[in-house]
């Protein structure tokens, strides 16, 4: 059975002006239930991660300042959110959702987090709506608990996974692959193990051609025992923060290719949602729902 991390706090009632990106989590949950792609049995509410799991990736002083709400104003501005106790609680639960999801993927082949994909969180600071790096923390958990010896992170959000690249820069057991818009945030990019920068206006054909060429090569050369997939839907043409020109159908084909590749190779995969900022919320929900539809069709 497909297992999905979801908690009502994921929607997090932010001040006016910050609500829109967050409302999609609750709406996506409702849509998946309404259309019958999922039932309540598919969803689990994550708890709070152990300190040792977070501190294996993030600086202790940074974590302390987050929890005590004592980050300086400059650091808070980088987050993009007002720093509140509820926001920090939310980030803890999202992180545990991905850790638990990784554990469930080992059993079921795949698990998903309806939030997460917080790839802009560095070891010692957060930025761009990312406080803790959920997939990095879960990857570290797998390594430390000897559940995998080689991990591949496939980041197909329109924005480079700069925090993930920094965290694993000196970790040969984790291969970071980020395929993103060259002209998009972050404007000073980190160095992933493999970065593929896409020109503004990149369409389905080019995007899927590059992905279908590169991913099998990476799986063959790196021989990962586990894959983390960041399935941001901000690659589509209508996205306000993206500059690519992929279609909704092309975005679904991307998901189908990644998940089919994992299934065919017998590699467990954990999927976090990442970004999606089209003007119409129904477009965002449909694109994210496509990832779940593909997972159900391919795996179950």
What does this structure look like?
- The protein is of the alpha/beta class and 300 residues long.
- The chain has a single domain (3-299), classed as Histone deacetylase domain (Arginase, Chain A), CATH 3.40.800.20.
- Helices cover 45% and strands 12% of the residues.
- It has helices at residues 20-35, 51-55, 60-68, 73-79, 85-108, 134-144, 162-167, 204-222, 248-265, 281-299; strands at residues 3-5, 43-44, 110-113, 151-155, 174-181, 194-198, 226-230, 269-272.
Low-confidence stretches: 14-21
CATH class: Alpha Beta
Tally of strands: 8
Order of helices and strands: EHEHHHHEHEHEEHEHEH
Amount of helix: 40-55%
Number of domains: 1
Please state the second-level CATH architecture.
3-Layer(aba) Sandwich
Radius of gyration: 17 Å
What is the overall pLDDT average?
Answer: 94
Count of runs of 4 or more consecutive helical residues: 10
Structural class call reads alpha/beta
Beta-strand percentage range: 5-15%
The best one-word shape is globular
GO molecular function: histone deacetylase activity; hydrolase activity
Protein name: Histone deacetylase
Family: Belongs to the histone deacetylase family.
InterPro entries: HDAC_classIV (IPR044150), HDACs (IPR000286), His_deacetylse_dom (IPR023801), His_deacetylse_dom_sf (IPR037138), Ureohydrolase_dom_sf (IPR023696)
